[in-house]
Amino acid sequence: ANLSRLSKAHSQGENLTYCPKTSPLIVGRINVRIHSNFTMQEVQRKNPLVVRGGRYRPPDCEARHRTAIIIPYRDREHHLKVLLYFLHPFLQRQQLNYGFYVIHQAGNYTFNRAKLMNVGFREAMKEEDWDCLFFHDVDLIPEDDRNTYVCDVNPKHVSVAIDRNNYKPTYKKAFGGVTALSPLHYQKINGFPNNYWGWGGEDDDIAKRVSRAGMSISRPSLKVGRYKMINHTRDKGNDVNINRFNMLEKTHQTWKQDGMNTVESRVISREYHPLYTNITVDIDTKA
Ligand code: UDH
Question: CB-based contacts of 65: which residues, under 8 Å, 6+ apart?
């Protein structure tokens, strides 16, 4: 009853006080056991305050942060269900105002993760004045809710310690998996490259953009930035991009010509599911 009163207060636009700087709901380390004997409906039932399109605001205080989760996606239904199962409660414990955007690449042509994230940025910002965007692989499950899904002064590489790498950091300029940028960071780097088709390279290109734009990369501690990766084999349509090293040699010339200023795509549909917004997009094929 209390909850419904509060959400009513919310929808009537009553003024709430700001949430505390550190959420009292944080538990720390989470025991992530990946299984899938549950349905999407059950995830829905466990998250009664999540509304259409996968949006949430804390019921009893005004969130200090507005975070959009952008997921590059194709044909990973099982992973998406597991991610939603863990990430919704995780973000609610952090008392964020948040929304989930699944950016689904239409067709069978080679996958293009970075271009999908450009589309995600554009489409999410049309809906809400997000102050932070989390670009999030679908198969990475955070294991500690002290890893707060808010932006730092610099672009943040968030998935620093992954079980598959024995929770060891990979390399100094790593910028894959889960990253967090504010709209200003994103603009400063001219978004992400659109021309990395297939697996690999785009993350390093983004890291180069960050340093070209005069910023550094921030990171959570290895203790807190822990993730479980859901096991999978290489997808069809995402072969290794063998040109990636040549392309990376030229980032310093290309980053201003290719990025958020040149992303071409056609949104085929926008569906507001209970736990996420699905945007299916035709990102075309290699020119
Ligand atoms: N993605 C999809 N569908 C695809 C390809 C990629 O949704 O067909 C998305 C998804 O969010 C994924 C991300 O792009 O988490 C990155 O792609 P990836 O998971 O293929 O990349 P990663 O480096 O794995 O995580 C590479 C293949 C690992 C094979 C290991 C065999 N044991």
Answer: 96, 97, 131, 132, 149, 150, 151
Residue 203 falls in the annotated catalytic set: yes
In this prediction, residues 221-231 reach a mean pLDDT of 97
Per residue in 147-198, pLDDT tens?
Answer: 999 999 999 999 999 999 999 998 989 999 999 999 999 999 999 999 999 9
At residue 4 the predicted structure's pLDDT band, cuts being 50, 70 and 90, is low
76 CA: nearest ligand 1 atom: 7
Tell me the pLDDT tens digit for each residue of 169-182. 989 899 999 999 99
- Provide DSSP, 56-121: E--SSSB-S-EEEEEEEESS-HHHHHHHHHHHHHHHHHTT-EEEEEEEEEPSSS---HHHHHHHHH
Q: Which residues line ligand 1 (CB under 6 A)?
A: 71-76, 111, 113, 137-139, 199, 233-235, 237-238
- Is 142:90 a contact under the CB 8 Å cutoff? yes
- The chain-wide mean pLDDT, for the chain, equals 94
Residue/partner pairs of 110-113 with CB below 8 Å, 24 or more apart: 110/197, 110/198, 110/237, 110/238, 110/239, 110/285, 110/286, 111/72, 111/74, 111/197, 111/198, 111/199, 111/235, 111/237, 111/238, 112/194, 112/196, 112/197, 112/198, 112/283, 113/72, 113/196, 113/202
Which tokens hold the place of 112? 């293009």
Residue 260: is its pLDDT beyond 70? yes
Q: How far is the centre of ligand 1, averaged over its atoms, from the C-alpha of 240 (Å)?
A: 11
